[in-house]
Write a structure and sequence with these properties.
single chain, six-stranded parallel sheet, 29 helices, alpha/beta, seven-stranded parallel sheet, 21 strands
């Protein structure tokens, strides 16, 4: 993080071109500083010395013994069919018992030369059984020579050592990385400390050079704990300083305050509502209206459980801005969702969308849709309505971002499903305002508080966790199709029952089922184990129509259909003309059909936890209870089944997001999808280290408030420069 002079030295100068190339391509390491910050993933203990007579099974042991004999055998195998395979068998003894060591292939040459009968050495490895005899396969060993007392001392230090195990690759094993780190470790003394002295001393943290020595060459477990505590603070603090500076800079930007008119469009809309807003909606709306009234841009993240009424909150914010003379744009990730938002917003507003038309209400405005597949004439009209200010609200896809699209006075940008958009796209839309517009980012994927602080740390957060009155509970069950085929038959009976009772159902499949997709590789380890490709929409729809759902009106929906066809299918389903919709995850976000009460998710183990939660949120949106059946062929003990059981056990999205995060690597959350850059987190875990992140955020805010340009903290400035490589800098710039 704090790469100065010696730490900025390219690895090529230390290790030569070949090694440096492998480190760069496979591990993303380019400088001495990068390598110093490539921390061990864990540590092996060679363990206390064990007598051969007391060897435990399946444990790592270290023994001191003498070689009794060594024999080299040749054998034939698949890899060496002509009998050229080699196996070295070494028998060792320590007086209490005997043990066999085996080495194979290229690994036989060195021990064959060194482990001669009579040689004394230390051996470390995992005890296994072969032909009913205990053995160590490919043990690590160190030859002992010289006086007995010297040997005894080296035995103790060698056996007690903590061996760092580094994140490695097939091209560069952990022990090679360890050797490289040992070579450059002295340069750690030149690392400039990014933490202000007062903060470090106040929290009892070791210095950065000391932490780097202790993480790579610990003498005790306490050394590792000291180093990790210190390095976690570095990561949390430097990232939070970057975000705090972003917030500080944003607070200095000018924006037009947007306050709703006393008896304007918003009041007229609220008067039309057939229900009252939930307490949560009222509270969040107040936070948003307070932000909109300030003269610097709002940056707010609105997290809402599936079906908590986020769209209503966003619409009222847009109406407030239109009231104040501005325009509002809503960016949706897919055409299906943009069309749906447009449809539901125009329905909710009624005659308030007929601005400038006969019969339109006095306070009305125009609500236009802009997507890539619109006809030329409709598109021209929409663009004209935007540039003249005739349209107060526009809902669109990426088509909104194109250069041709110009606004009369863009006051608010609402981004739906934040994680679907690149930062560049969001920024391009914000750049269309005469002054920076206010920004409201929405997501239905609940994000644990610390992740929100770390990923969206430049946004203030509002949470909607209360469901509107009249929403029904959703019952979720796992259907083990392989163990209990009759459960699957019962699932289709349940779908029929729902249809008989006047309701509708979704069946979700992981794949579309045309040739182009069939060649794709399986994604998860469970997929690798499965020979069968994931179930496909087209196949399943066909089987259901001919089999268990014969006689029902079954239609398909997937991402590769023409936009008009997709829209027509959705309209028929929403109108109740279709009984069962067999679809891909294209229905995951925002699709609202209150009459759909049942959902069957095929190969549910192929979906992530938060994705299953999103999908399930499509049912139970009306007054009738919802039912979600998770169909899987995974065995009961598998991780995939445990994941599905967790989803079936709770409807709490925040609880599920924690489970999801614990099961995935941190980098998935903070990496590519969020920033376009490699995750900067190496020792910090956003769930476990909740307290550190919260405290680091407070400390960072105080530091930035006192010294926004970090003039008095050169070490911290250097650390920031290293963290904010070009891509990450852009990410935060556009946050």
């Amino acid at each position: 993080m704090d790469l100065v002079s010696a730490l900025e030295k390219p690895l090529e100068k230390e290790f030569g071109r070949t090694t440096a190339k492998v480190m760069a391509e496979h591990l993303g390491l380019h400088t001495v500083g990068d390598l110093l910050h490539h921390y061990p993933r864990r540590y092996e203990e060679r363990g206390r010395l064990t007598l051969l007579a007391d060897l435990p099974m399946d444990e790592h042991v270290t023994v001191v013994a003498q070689v009794a004999d060594a024999r080299l055998h040749s054998f034939a195998s698949a890899k060496a069919p002509r009998g050229k395979g080699q196996r070295l068998e070494v028998t060792i003894t320590d007086g209490s018992g005997r043990l066999q060591l085996v080495f194979f292939g290229h690994g036989v040459h060195k021990p064959h030369k060194e482990l001669l009968p009579g040689t004394r050495a230390m051996f470390a490895g995992k005890v296994s059984v072969f032909n009913r005899r205990l053995q160590l396969a490919h043990p690590a060993y160190e030859l002992l020579s010289g006086a007995e007392d010297g040997a005894a001392e080296s035995v103790e230090t060698w056996a007690g050592a903590l061996i760092p195990i580094y994140p490695a690759t097939g091209k560069m094993e952990s022990w090679k990385i360890g050797k490289a780190v040992q070579q450059i470790l002295p340069t750690a003394d030149e690392a400039v400390d990014p933490l202000p002295d007062s903060l470090r001393a106040g929290r009892g943290l070791v210095t950065l050079p000391e932490a780097l020595h202790k993480i790579h060459r610990p003498h005790t477990k306490a050394d590792i704990a000291d180093a990790r505590a210190r390095l976690k603070w570095d990561e949390a603090f430097v990232l939070q300083v970057a975000l705090a500076r972003r917030r500080h800079a944003d607070a200095l930007l000018p924006a037009v305050p947007r306050r709703p008119a006393p008896d304007g469009l918003l009041t007229a809309f609220d008067d039309r509502l057939p229900f009252t807003l939930t307490e949560g909606q009222q509270k969040v709306s107040k936070e948003i209206f307070d932000d909109l009234a300030t003269d610097h841009p709002m940056h707010r993240l609105l997290q809402g459980e599936v079906g908590s009424g986020k769209t209503m909150v966003a619409l009222r914010a847009m109406l407030a801005v239109v009231d104040a003379g501005g325009q509002a744009a809503m960016l949706a990730p897919t055409e299906v969702l943009a069309q749906q938002h447009h449809r539901s917003i125009t329905e909710m507003m009624g005659e308030l969308t007929e601005g400038g038309m006969l019969g339109g209400a006095e306070q009305a405005t125009k609500v236009v849709l802009l997507t890539g597949s619109m006809g030329a004439a409709a598109r021209r009209q929409a663009l004209l309505d935007l540039v003249t200010g005739e349209a107060g609200i526009v809902i669109g896809t990426h088509a909104l971002i194109e250069d041709k699209v110009q606004f009369h006075d863009l006051g608010l940008v609402v981004v739906d499903e934040q994680h679907r958009f690149g930062v560049e796209q969001r920024d391009a839309l914000r750049g269309k305002g005469k002054q920076p517009p206010h920004l409201l980012v929405m997501t239905a994927t609940p994000i644990p508080r610390t992740v929100a602080m770390t990923v969206f740390g430049d946004l203030e957060t509002s949470v909607l966790d209360q469901l509107p009155a009249g929403r029904s509970p959703i019952a979720s069950h796992v259907v083990p199709a392989a163990d209990k085929p009759h459960f699957l038959a019962r699932a289709w009976e349940r779908v029929r029952e729902e249809v008989t009772n006047g309701h509708q159902a979704y069946v979700v499949c992981p794949r579309i089922g045309d040739e182009a997709e069939d060649t794709k590789k399986a994604k998860s380890p469970e997929d690798e184990a499965e020979k069968r490709p994931p179930l496909a929409v087209l196949d399943v729809a066909d089987q259901l129509s001919r089999g268990p759902l014969q006689g029902l009106k079954v239609e398909v929906l997937h991402g590769r259909m023409q936009p008009d066809d997709k829209d027509a299918v959705m309209r028929r389903f929403a109108a109740g003309e279709t009984d069962v919709l067999v679809a891909t995850t294209v229905i995951e976000v925002g699709v609202n059909v209150p009459n759909a009460t049942a959902m069957v998710i095929m190969d549910a183990d192929r979906f992530g936890v938060s994705q299953l939660h999103q999908l399930r949120g499509r049912v139970g949106r009306g007054s009738a209870p919802g039912l979600c059946l998770l169909v899987t062929e995974m065995p009961e003990a598998s991780a995939a089944r445990q994941r599905l059981d967790a989803v079936a056990a709770t409807l709490d999205g925040f609880e599920l997001s924690r489970i999801d995060l614990e099961q995935r690597r941190e980098g998935d959350v903070l990496g590519q999808a969020q920033s376009g850059a490699r995750t900067s987190l190496r020792v910090l875990a956003v769930i476990e280290d909740e307290e550190i992140i919260a405290e680091a955020r407070e400390e960072a805010a105080a530091v930035v408030a006192a010294d926004p340009d970090l003039e008095h903290l050169p070490g911290l400035r250097t650390a920031l420069d290293a963290l904010l490589d070009e891509e990450r800098e852009q990410y935060l710039e556009k946050g």
